Amino acid sequence: MIAADQVATKVADFAVVDPPPRSQTLHVPKGYRVSKEQFLVEVENIVRQHFGQPLSSQFLEKELSISERTLYRRLKQLIVLAPKKIIDSLCMEYARSLFLTLSIKFSCVTQALGCSDDAVFRHVFKFQVGMCPNQYR
């Protein structure tokens, strides 16, 4: 009986091993960039806070209080993307989440993103995602 208690204790020790702590990045919604670079976090926050408005690189320049050249240089250095590509990618991720979570019309999604031309939205969505919005839904 004494050996059984020792074996049970050893088995329990192996069975109740605490896993290594996980990073909180697992809980970040898909599409959100996880970056330690403060500049990228600021750019993403500005874009996400202003969905529904026409977004452009000029808008980012004003919000960040930097020049066009500085904006392009910093973004190219950090993630090799131009400002318009970053804006498009964040908008398309938001559109994807709207298509998956809500059953709303295509025009409502484009309105929520501030896109005035449905054809342009379809083109960008297809380019970013690889399929038309209706196919994706």
Automatic annotation (TrEMBL):
Keywords carried by this UniProt record: DNA-binding
Entry-linked SMART domains: HTH_ARAC
InterPro entries in alphabetical order: HTH_AraC
GO molecular function per UniProt: DNA-binding transcription factor activity; sequence-specific DNA binding
Matches recorded under Pfam families: HTH_18
UniProt-listed PANTHER family: ARAC-FAMILY TRANSCRIPTIONAL REGULATOR, HTH-TYPE TRANSCRIPTIONAL ACTIVATOR RHAS
Protein name: AraC family transcriptional regulator
Organism of provenance: Microbulbifer okhotskensis
